[in-house]
Amino acid sequence: MxxxxxxxxxxxxxxMLRRRLLERVPISELCDKQRLQPTVFYRWQxxxxxxxxxDFQPKARPKHSRE
Length: 67
Prior knowledge:
67 residues; mainly alpha; 52% helix
């Protein structure tokens, strides 16, 4: 029988990254507790840093039509 994969929400992923980066919890401890492969954690971390700049980009303002 196949084991079902756990799908983590973005909030869960950020919470794990935060624990690692701010609280300095070892990756091995996080991954063991969540039953997560370290390579998956490292991929999340890479995606987080690559996509994090998007949050600092200026937001497009809605265009108002003149009527």
